[in-house]
Amino acid sequence: MNVRWFFIFFVFFFSSTAHAEENSKNTDLKHVTIKLHWQHQFQFAGIYAAKEKGFYRQAGLDVEILTGFNHPYDEVENGNVDFGISGTGIVMEYMKGRPFVALGATFQSSPYVWLVKADSGIYSAADFVGRTINRQSEADDLTAIFLQQHVDTSKINFVPPSKNNLNDLISGRIDGVTAYISNEPFYMQEQNEPYRVISPRDYGINFYSDILFTTQSYIQNNPELVDAFRKATYQGWTYTAEHTDEIIDLVLEKYNTQRKTPAHVNYEAEQLLKLSLYPTVEFGHVTLSRWKQIAETYSKLGINDQSRDLDEFIYTAPDSEIVLFKWLVLILSGLSLTIIFFYLVKRHHNRILTKEIQEKTESIKKELANRSALEAKAKQESLRLKTLLDTTIDSVITIDAYGVIVSFNKASAQLYGYTPEEIIGKNITELMPASYRDMHKLGMARFLSTEDSHIIGKPVQLEALHKSGNLFPIELTISH
């Protein structure tokens, strides 16, 4: 089979295989679940995009999105759901011994802030002393502000959050509320209530937010699935950042159970995408050093006094497997780049010449009984072979194991423009286009170590390099 038909067969085979695999994926999707830590809103738009734009399906996954009101630590740990979304408090759960792995972060900065009225007289964390505020947790980046500023929190009146947080703030019943930068400020603007935001970022405190996570055992049992799910999820977020208006419409149409107005969802998108830092930072990006800083902050808050190596907490993608396509491409490349080895002759002449050389070699081995006779016979046969090569009309070149040209017959000199004196002793790559040379060296090494070649004795069509620098077509047959 010549190279052209081999290539056609290769393309046909791969196309058929790829088509069959695609059909198989469409009919045999793996069902997985992910649970959010709140109700549907633009905060989770990348997950919706991954589902609705087919990124999960392309990864072989049928994804079910569940909602909630709390971090789904228990559901993920006991296996009721496969993946979850949480805040950075997940690192504290890991420190306690829970088997969680952070697959990546959607937002590089936390959206949590303190919200106060503009006329409250509160401008910094220290101004909360003697005031009444609510808070969601004792262990978050908002509380870390008090720790950094050495604020005595015993002098602050903390009350639990309620459904009427903003009304309580506006009426003056409380002085500050924990807020999500994409929600409560919008409602304050709607009611024309001047407000002020006190953000952890103002104090150099920068927690991640919306952590995609699962368990160590789930990754061990499903390494390819986890990697595919992670990539598809952040592909969804990238698409969201680059097609924001389209995904806003998607959220309003299919994921708006809180019945937010288009203006509110647009406000959410603007505020949250700022926190992602995309495109400067890719979605999912996290670093070990920053997670260590977050863990140390929790430790200083007195919430966690345990120490645990974070290397197992941060997800590491498995090594990519080489699929059939890549193997076939490498094989084809190897064949095409190792086609100049020994002879440049036509098929019928090569067969005749090869047979004669083999017969002469065997005759020499049988007839010569001692060293002197062997040397004399070898010299005689060498002269006969040289005469034979010089009288043949085909170009014949021999090389040694290092690719160095050993003989160069007259037909070769006429074909390539070199005299034997000019080219013998140089590497065979002198006669190859530059694009072939590196892979020829790899092919030679492979052949010498394995003696494996798929083109010995088979003619192939390629280009050679003339002394003048011009390329010209040749038909090559290789023998050894």
Verbal overview:
A hairpin with a 5-residue loop joins β11 and β12. The strands form five sheets. A five-stranded mixed β-sheet has the order 2-1-3-10-4. It has a three-stranded antiparallel β-sheet with strand order 8-5-9, covered by helices on one side. The radius of gyration is 36 Å and the shape is elongated. It contains 19 helices and 14 strands. It is 46% helix and 15% strand.
What percentage of residues falls in helices of 4 or more residues? Answer: 40-55%
Oligomer: single chain
Q: How big a fraction of the residues is strand?
A: 5-15%
CA-based gyration radius? 36 Å
Structural class: alpha/beta
Unreliable runs: 1-14, 321-327
For the record, give the distance between the C-alpha atoms at the N and C termini, rounded to a whole number.
20 Å
Instruction: Give the overall pLDDT as a whole number.
Output: 84
Number of β-strand runs: 14
The biggest beta sheet reads: 5 strands, mixed
Report the total helices. Answer: 19
Labels describing this entry:
five-stranded mixed sheet; disordered N terminus; 14 strands; elongated; 15% strand; 480 residues; alpha/beta; single chain
